[in-house]
Design goal:
- InterPro entries: DHS-like_NAD/FAD-binding_dom, ETF_a/b_N, ETF_a/FixB, ETF_alpha_N, ETF_asu_C, ETF_asu_C_CS, Rossmann-like_a/b/a_fold.
- Belongs to the ETF alpha-subunit/FixB family.
- GO terms for molecular function: electron transfer activity; flavin adenine dinucleotide binding.
- By secondary structure, this protein is an alpha/beta fold.
- The protein is built from 9 helices and 17 strands.
- The strands form 4 sheets. It has a 7-stranded parallel β-sheet with strand order 7-11-6-1-4-5-12, sandwiched between helices.
- β2 and β3 form a beta hairpin.
Length: 350
């Protein structure tokens, strides 16, 4: 039977001080979860944290219905030295306003051993980490794709894409920065695996916010039997050339089902109402890096390429031989997608 261990503020400080004497990096990784399942993107953030070469502490927060199960899974993550968890009804659908006070408590200068705070580059973390960093008067680096920690100078160097991925910025956080905050592009790091041993876990008292300024109203999730777009190993995407929503579905969905692939869309297709915005791939949508990315009727605008050009194998079909998508494609076919896709489905079913 799972039992949460409750710790007083004094015992928590003692737990944290146990790591404070070590000069090596100590990362606090924010592990996001939904319906009792740890997000794949958070597992990639954990891999990034391990590359710092020091201790790694996971942080799990949420409501009482899911935290116990998530903690049991998180304790078995390879590379996690210890685990902190906090449970509250206010954390069931947490906001940056409610969670920031908890993180400020864990990162207080008098007791915190943490040198880095890490999370995946998700919608919630993009709101939470910069808020906490600003309240602590510390900088934050977002959407990193690689990192290197120099233990001799206690500095960390990151790379991150800028200008829609057309340039890479190198950012160095020197030792003068007490805690280095950064979010991780999940497609740049492999997901952490699970181990047989359990990490030590400690419960942290939640901090209740009276009369919070924001309130969670509802969560609307698009349900699909296909793989989740951000984590799929195969993606079939369509653009504005698919004419309308009905044609988009009748053309691409059979191919996606035959391949066991997720469905994506260009911004033009989403803006035209062909597909839900949860399927948008690109700078203002989701960044994907599957083993196979198939683009049908997508010209290859810069903002779309920024979301998929790290894919292992890119296949493009377009009637325009000068379409920019062919510049990044590994396999390109100048043809009508309405001829190519049915033929592909037929061959796959055979």
């Amino acid at each position: 039977m799972f039992r949460l261990q409750r710790r007083t503020a004094g015992s928590l400080r003692a737990f944290l001080r146990g790591y404070a004497t070590s000069p090596s990096p100590h990362a606090l990784v924010f592990l996001e979860h939904r319906q009792g399942v740890i997000d794949t993107a958070s597992l990639s953030a954990l891999t990034a944290a391990q590359q710092l070469g020091g201790e790694v502490t996971g942080l799990v927060v949420g409501g009482p219905d899911h935290v116990p199960a998530v903690v049991e899974k998180a304790k078995k993550l390879k590379g996690v030295s210890s685990l902190l968890h906090s449970t509250s009804a206010q954390y069931s659908e947490p906001s940056a306003e409610t969670l920031s006070l908890l993180l400020e408590k864990l990162l207080s200068p008098d007791s915190s051993p943490f040198t880095h705070v890490v999370s995946a580059h998700t919608a919630s973390a993009k709101s939470l980490l910069p808020r906490v960093a600003a309240r602590l008067d510390l900088p934050a680096v977002s959407d990193i794709t690689s990192l290197e920690h120099d233990s001799s100078s206690n500095s960390t160097t990151f790379t991150r894409p800028i200008y829609a991925g057309n340039a890479i910025a190198t950012v160095k956080a020197p030792s003068s920065i007490r805690i280095k905050f950064f979010t991780v592009r999940s497609t740049a790091f492999s997901a952490a695996s699970f181990a047989e041993t359990d990490a030590e876990d400690k419960a942290v008292d939640p901090i209740t916010v009276d009369n919070p300024l924001t309130e969670h109203v509802q969560t609307l999730l698009t349900k699909s039997d296909r793989p989740e777009l951000g984590a799929a190993s195969r993606v079939v995407s369509g653009g504005r050339a698919l004419k309308n929503a009905e044609t988009f579905q009748s053309t691409l969905y059979p191919l996606a089902d035959a391949l066991g692939a997720a469905v994506g869309a260009s911004r033009a297709a989403v803006d035209a109402g062909y597909a839900d915005n949860s399927l948008q791939v690109g700078q203002t949508g989701k960044v994907v890096a599957p083993e196979l990315y198939m683009a049908f009727g997508i010209s290859g605008a810069i903002q779309h390429l920024a979301g998929m050009k790290d894919s292992k194998l890119i296949v493009a079909v377009n009637k325009d031989p000068d379409a920019p998508i062919f510049q990044v494609a590994d396999v390109g076919l100048v043809a009508d997608l309405f001829d190519v896709v049915p033929e592909l489905v037929k061959k796959l079913k055979e």
